């Protein structure tokens, strides 16, 4: 599969270079009626090429059929463009050599040229539609692959409850004994030597301090040093996946206007930004598993110690995300609760 992967990368890369050459060549550029359409095709093929480069052979085996489709579309795009250029050159040559009046030559040339350009644009539109369809299928497949990997690779660790750990704190102390213990326990879950992507739900009733605890951990000096990328976003009961993804991408340094990108493009772009980096994601105030399903495809699972921490008040949501790593928050005593509130 490794050789097939390299071959497909080369095929798409060669097609991309051919398109670039056509765009830059003055004669061929003149023969291509819609340069914006060509540029769109270039961008989409480049996106697919990057996708193949970012995923290991083991992952590609899960999407072998889609890889073949990508290669076929790349070949089709190149064939359509080459055929159009050849047809245009042949038509121009034939019109110039025909023994007709100048008016007839001009009329025939214009009519044939319009027909060929219309057919060419239609064919390219179909190719672009195929690419968009493949991108959507890639996203859906990655959701299944990543979700399956997370479920199968969770280690057999007992659910953690407050008061069960005696590890020393590595970061800032809150001065609240019970809360400091909780910080230690969550930091243990985040930083232990488990390479697979771990999902860590923090569950408890509203107002008990889940978000405060998660924020303290998120900003802890040791945690900051441990992870290459840290992302925090709030879900709540009503949310816009599109707006959240744009905000997250901007937060991690992606510049430019992202509003016109589709959900699939935004999700895969976030996946690419996180790929190869040890990241910490905090999803605050999750009310249903739908919220998790909306974003999980963007979280790569490549055995580098990445973590996703989720706060929720619903036990069934926490249980559906992780049966081993759930951290259940109980009430603190009155003095500790007041001190925490003062923080």
TrEMBL record:
InterPro entries reported in the protein's UniProt record: NB-ARC, P-loop_NTPase
Highest taxon above the source species: Eukaryota
Coiled coil: 60-106
Annotated GO biological process: defense response
Keyword ATP-binding found: yes
Domain NB-ARC intervals: 184-342
Keyword Nucleotide-binding: yes
GO molecular function terms attached to this record: ADP binding; ATP binding
UniProtKB keywords: ATP-binding, Coiled coil, Nucleotide-binding, Plant defense
Family (UniProt): Belongs to the disease resistance NB-LRR family.
Protein name per its UniProtKB record: NB-ARC domain-containing protein
Originating species: Buddleja alternifolia
């Amino acid at each position: 599969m490794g050789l097939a992967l390299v071959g497909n990368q080369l095929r798409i890369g060669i097609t991309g270079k051919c398109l670039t050459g056509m765009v830059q060549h003055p004669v061929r550029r003149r023969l291509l009626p819609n340069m914006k359409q060509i540029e769109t095709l270039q961008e989409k093929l480049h996106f697919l090429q990057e996708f193949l480069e970012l995923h290991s052979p083991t992952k590609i085996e899960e999407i072998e059929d889609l890889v073949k489709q990508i290669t076929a579309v790349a070949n089709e795009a190149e064939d359509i463009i080459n055929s159009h250029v050849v047809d245009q050159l042949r038509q121009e040559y034939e019109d110039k050599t025909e023994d007709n009046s100048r008016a007839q030559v001009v009329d025939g040339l214009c009519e044939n040229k319009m027909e060929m350009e219309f057919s060419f644009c239609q064919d390219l539109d179909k190719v672009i539609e195929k690419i968009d369809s493949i991108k959507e299928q890639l996203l859906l497949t990655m959701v299944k692959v990543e979700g399956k990997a997370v479920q199968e690779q969770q280690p057999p660790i007992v659910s953690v409850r407050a008061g069960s750990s005696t590890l020393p704190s590595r970061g800032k102390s809150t001065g609240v004994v019970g809360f400091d213990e909780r910080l230690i326990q969550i930091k243990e879950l985040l930083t232990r030597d488990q390479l697979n992507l771990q999902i860590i739900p923090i569950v408890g009733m509203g107002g008990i301090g889940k978000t405060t605890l998660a924020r303290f951990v998120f900003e802890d000096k040791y945690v900051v040093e441990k992870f290459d990328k840290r992302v925090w976003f709030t879900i709540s009961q009503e949310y816009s996946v599109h707006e959240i993804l744009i905000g997250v991408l901007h937060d991690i340094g992606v510049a430019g206007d992202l509003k016109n990108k589709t959900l699939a493009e935004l999700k895969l772009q976030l996946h690419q930004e996180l790929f190869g980096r040890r990241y910490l994601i905090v999803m605050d105030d999750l009310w249903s598993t739908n919220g998790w399903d909306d974003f999980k495809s963007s979280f790569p699972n490549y055995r580098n110690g990445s973590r996703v921490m989720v706060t929720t008040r619903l036990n069934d949501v926490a249980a559906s995300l992780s049966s081993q790593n759930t951290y259940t928050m109980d009430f603190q005593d009155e003095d500790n609760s007041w001190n925490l509130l003062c923080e």
